[in-house]
Amino acid sequence: MSMGTMETSGVETNHPSINRLRALSLRALLFVYVYILVKIILLKFHAVDLGFLWKRLSAGLHQPALISQRLEAGSLVPFREISRSLQSFSEHDMYNLVGNVAIFMPFGVLLGLLFARKRLAGIKVLLCTSFLSLCLETSQLLFMIGQFDVDDLLLNTMGGILGFAIYRGINRRN
């Protein structure tokens, strides 16, 4: 395949301007998706209030014991919350488990589209998804909004990989 050739859902294009537009569109969509993730996971659907976030961050940085307490209150043991949720099998727990996977599936699809013809695309998706989830979990800790939960990190990463697998499965059929 030549430098200017790109495959898009089984259709190859030789137009660099179309390829650039496609890449730019995917990056814009990825930016919007990450913004929505931040609104949902970090801000809990509230408006972006930089003053509020700065106060929360400053409080934690000036009193590291608060962050330490929140970290201890969170879940650092892998699979603890997943196991507890599967045992209790409450509607809320199942919503949380499925939601943590489902919310990152579009990320896996978008990364699949961005890394379509790249080597080691699956590894890149795994690393990018894990990194984004870790950033969001750490932000919850630093801004003292929500709890740091290693199981959320695992479930989010699983969602990204599942989204990528779905993308790959659909792309192979075309």
From TrEMBL:
The chain crosses the membrane at residues 28-47, 94-116, 125-147, 153-170. Keywords: Membrane, Transmembrane, Transmembrane helix. Signal peptide: none annotated. Residues 63-168 form the VanZ-like domain. InterPro entries: Teicoplanin_resist-assoc, VanZ-like. The keyword Plastid does not apply. This is VanZ family protein. It comes from Cohnella soli.
